[in-house]
């Protein structure tokens, strides 16, 4: 009886220890998997059984990789690293770590095949455990169109790619080359697509860094903005607006808004910009200087000649000599 009781008590003690072990709460994810990185492997929350299953699959994958590497290093399979990589990839894919889904968000100007080619997602032997998410992210942000990127691996078979693209804001011309630039003046690429033909054009050294300034100025005057073909930054100090009909509007360095508002008011009253003029000079404060085209200047000169002749006083008649009289 005493032996039975002792045995029964020992069994109950082991059971209590087991129940206490299983009753321990799970540690937070940060403690189990380490501190978070710029990329992460995220386990789907499917319950303890799924997590245990994934852990078992990872263990098996590690065993396959170890055994395969041993065979290769020992000369049983081959001596090249490529053979080892192929063997390991095949093993991982066979137990469920194949890439079954790729999610891409935020890509509008770049196509999905272009993204896949850039980060190596077009390989048929790709596995989620063998995919380097951080390296893929670095390759994506090297693309001029992409401002920021995020790449995550979601085990067992999903890769999530999210990008934020640069927005074309203007066309910048310098040294005969035209590039797309964003709001900050960052070059996106060469202008080759007619979809961006309606973007404002800025010309000259430093104009790329001041595209927001000139665009906001022209947005205040929509009717004038429609006539502007390009804005040229002169000596990185002031703007000259090139209108579609060939008229140049020379803006001052300071007081640009007031000068342009004055021109718009005068144009509304007299239709100045519709006349045969070559340039409007606003560089001097409170003055509007207009330069006519050569044709208009010649017409004006010809028109002024008759006036000049008619305004010249006539010479007095010669005196009349008295006629001789014979007495």
UniProtKB/TrEMBL annotation:
<keyword id="KW-0132">Cell division</keyword>
<feature type="domain" description="POTRA">
    <location>
        <begin position="97"/>
        <end position="166"/>
    </location>
</feature>
<dbReference type="InterPro" id="IPR013685">
    <property type="entry name" value="POTRA_FtsQ_type"/>
</dbReference>
<dbReference type="InterPro" id="IPR045335">
    <property type="entry name" value="FtsQ_C_sf"/>
</dbReference>
<feature type="transmembrane region" description="Helical">
    <location>
        <begin position="54"/>
        <end position="73"/>
    </location>
</feature>
<dbReference type="Pfam" id="PF03799">
    <property type="entry name" value="FtsQ_DivIB_C"/>
</dbReference>
<dbReference type="GO" id="GO:0005886">
    <property type="term" value="C:plasma membrane"/>
</dbReference>
<feature type="region of interest" description="Disordered">
    <location>
        <begin position="1"/>
        <end position="27"/>
    </location>
</feature>
<dbReference type="GO" id="GO:0090529">
    <property type="term" value="P:cell septum assembly"/>
</dbReference>
<protein>
    <recommendedName>
        <fullName>Cell division protein FtsQ</fullName>
    </recommendedName>
</protein>
<keyword id="KW-0812">Transmembrane</keyword>
<keyword id="KW-0131">Cell cycle</keyword>
<keyword id="KW-0472">Membrane</keyword>
<dbReference type="GO" id="GO:0043093">
    <property type="term" value="P:FtsZ-dependent cytokinesis"/>
</dbReference>
<dbReference type="InterPro" id="IPR026579">
    <property type="entry name" value="FtsQ"/>
</dbReference>
<dbReference type="InterPro" id="IPR005548">
    <property type="entry name" value="Cell_div_FtsQ/DivIB_C"/>
</dbReference>
<keyword id="KW-1133">Transmembrane helix</keyword>
<dbReference type="Pfam" id="PF08478">
    <property type="entry name" value="POTRA_1"/>
</dbReference>
<dbReference type="InterPro" id="IPR034746">
    <property type="entry name" value="POTRA"/>
</dbReference>
<comment type="similarity">
    <text>Belongs to the FtsQ/DivIB family. FtsQ subfamily.</text>
</comment>
<feature type="region of interest" description="Disordered">
    <location>
        <begin position="303"/>
        <end position="327"/>
    </location>
</feature>
<keyword id="KW-1003">Cell membrane</keyword>
<keyword id="KW-0997">Cell inner membrane</keyword>
<dbReference type="GO" id="GO:0032153">
    <property type="term" value="C:cell division site"/>
</dbReference>
<comment type="function">
    <text>Essential cell division protein.</text>
</comment>
């Amino acid at each position: 009886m005493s032996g039975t009781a002792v045995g029964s008590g020992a069994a109950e003690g082991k059971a209590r220890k087991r129940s206490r072990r299983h009753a321990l709460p799970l540690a937070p994810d940060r403690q189990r998997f380490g501190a978070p990185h710029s990329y992460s492997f995220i386990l789907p929350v499917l319950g303890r059984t799924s997590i245990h299953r994934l852990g078992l699959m990872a263990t098996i994958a590690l065993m396959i990789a170890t055994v395969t590497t041993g065979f290769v290093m020992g000369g049983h399979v081959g001596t090249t690293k490529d053979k080892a990589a192929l063997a390991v990839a095949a093993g991982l894919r066979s137990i469920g770590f194949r890439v079954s889904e790729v999610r891409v968000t935020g890509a509008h100007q770049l196509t999905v095949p272009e993204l896949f080619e850039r980060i190596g997602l077009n390989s048929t032997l790709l596995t989620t455990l063998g995919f380097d998410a951080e390296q893929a992210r670095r390759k994506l942000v090297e693309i001029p169109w992409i401002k920021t990127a995020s790449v995550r691996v979601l085990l067992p078979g999903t890769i999530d790619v999210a990008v934020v693209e640069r927005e074309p804001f203007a066309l910048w011309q310098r040294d005969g080359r035209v590039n797309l630039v964003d709001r900050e003046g960052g070059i996106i690429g060469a202008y080759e697509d007619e979809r961006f033909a309606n973007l404002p054009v800025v010309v000259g050294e430093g104009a790329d860094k001041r595209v927001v300034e000139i665009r906001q100025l022209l947005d205040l005057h929509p009717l004038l903005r429609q006539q502007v073909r390009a804005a040229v930054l002169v000596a990185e100090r002031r703007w000259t607006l090139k209108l579609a009909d060939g008229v140049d509007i020379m803006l001052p360095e300071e007081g640009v808004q007031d000068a342009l508002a004055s021109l718009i008011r005068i144009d509304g009253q007299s239709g100045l910009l519709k006349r045969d003029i070559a340039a409007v000079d606003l560089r001097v404060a409170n003055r509007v200087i207009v330069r006519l085209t050569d044709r208009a200047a010649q017409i004006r000169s010809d028109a002024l000649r008759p006036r000049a002749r008619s305004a010249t006083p006539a010479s007095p008649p010669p005196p009349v000599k008295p006629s001789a009289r014979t007495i």
